[in-house]
Specification:
Elements: E1 11-13, H1 23-31, E2 36-39, H2 45-55, E3 63-68, H3 77-86, H4 88-92, H5 108-118, E4 122-126, H6 132-141, E5 144-149, H7 152-160, E6 165-169, E7 175-176, H8 190-200, E8 205-208, H9 214-222, E9 227-230, H10 244-250, E10 256-259, E11 267-270, H11 273-278, H12 288-303, H13 325-339
Parallel strand pairs: 1-9, 2-3, 3-4, 4-5, 5-6, 6-8, 8-9
Antiparallel strand pairs: 7-11, 10-11
The structure holds flavin mononucleotide (FMN).
Flavin mononucleotide (FMN) is lined by residues 14-18, 20, 39, 41, 66, 126, 148, 169, 172-175, 178, 208-211, 229-233, 312, 314, 316.
């Protein structure tokens, strides 16, 4: 049975790497009848193993595990060096240096081994879809494999490697776009993208991006999705590890925008000074730019300086509720019933 068929509520709590995802958040979302996710990104495999242990207590809880596919973008080394130099004054404000523009595979092999050993209900991927052998290994271990796609072409690639379902991520989404084929122009909005992907494949679809109400879930289901994945809607839950300055910004009225300024990969966040000052100069190159800005963002976070941290948020962020995650899921479920 697909993990989507077993859900009491057709809802997935998005993996939220970089702080907001916690074992308590994943557990609360799953316990409310949706599917919670553990976010492996930026952590070591050992750290993720400890989180899985927590989410597994009590035994029998169903949840997903999300991994970053280690894509290798073509990068312009000179542009990367120039960007790191440009950010030197940002770092000097905190008495530090920008980080090195390096590449890393985010502990890929060890995380894949962990995923195969632990066999959560779902293993999902973003930034790329793994090879068919990897998909088959994970499925043989007992997991469904989901790939994040942002275009019909990416959906065809994921269908070719026999993914079980697709997370269809539109441009309204908070955080990074999971695109892995060449970025052609502006990404598509969630509903339009869903309709395109539904024409390109018969796979079950999970809609992501700008969904934070029962009406929006109903619209996604009507456009061909089997479930909706919500990220930003959970950022203000007490179980989330969202930092205080980030929470404060989410309570305000800033606009959101897509930018490469923080990590070299397109992501949507609340507009702040760092984004305004550096967006146009930021080169493509993930995770190299992520490593350049990481010490600056960490220092800004510690100093409570909301103008120099990445404030990932989707277009529907004003609807994020300050309520326990279980209540948020229940509320969305009740709104969905009313909207149907
Ligand atoms: C803070 C934050 C961190 C995210 N981290 C991940 C991640 O680790 N893996 C992933 O596949 N998607 C990640 N996403 C994207 C979500 O999976 C999802 O596509 C997005 O939250 C949906 O849009 P919404 O934020 O408007 O609900 C992240 C999003 C946010 C806001």
């Amino acid at each position: 049975m697909s993990p989507l068929d077993g859900l009491a509520v057709p809802l997935v709590g998005a993996p939220l790497a970089g702080g907001p995802s916690t074992p308590a958040l994943a557990a609360a979302v799953s316990d409310a009848g949706a599917l919670g996710f553990v976010a492996a990104g930026y952590k070591t495999a050992d750290e993720v193993a400890l989180e899985l242990e927590e989410v597994r207590r009590p035994a029998g809880r169903r949840f997903g595990l999300n991994l970053f596919y280690p894509a290798r973008d073509e990068v312009d080394e000179q542009a990367l060096t120039a960007y790191a130099e440009r950010l030197r004054p940002e770092a000097e404000r905190f008495g530090i240096e920008p980080g090195e523009p390096r590449w890393s595979d985010d502990d890929w092999d060890a995380k894949l081994e962990l995923a195969a050993r632990e066999a959560p209900a779902v293993v999902s991927f973003t930034f790329g879809c793994p090879e068919r052998e990897v998909v088959e290994t994970l499925r043989a271990a007992g997991s469904a494999v989901w790939c994040t796609v942002t275009s019909a072409e990416e959906a065809r690639v994921a269908a070719d490697v026999r993914a079980d379902a697709l997370v269809v991520q539109g441009r309204e989404a908070g955080g990074h776009q999971g695109s892995f084929l060449a970025e052609a122009g502006e990404p598509l909005p969630t509903l339009g993208l869903l309709r395109q992907v539904a024409r390109a494949t018969d796979l079950p679809l999970v809609a992501a991006g700008g969904i934070a109400s029962g009406e929006a879930i109903a619209a996604a289901l009507a456009a061909g999705a089997s479930a909706a994945q919500v990220g930003t809607a959970l950022l203000l839950a007490p179980e989330a590890g969202t930092s205080e300055p980030y929470r404060e910004a989410l309570r305000g009225g800033r606009p959101t925008r897509l930018t490469r300024a923080f990590t070299g990969r397109r992501g949507r966040g609340l507009v702040n000074r760092f984004m305004r000052d550096h967006d146009r100069a930021a080169p493509r190159g993930y995770p190299q730019v992520h490593y350049v800005t990481a010490p600056i963002r960490a220092a800004a976070r510690a100093a409570g300086d909301v103008e120099a941290i990445n404030l990932w948020a989707g277009e529907a962020y004003a609807r994020a509720a300050e309520a326990p995650a279980g209540e948020i899921v229940e509320r969305l479920s009740a709104e969905l019933q009313a909207a149907r």
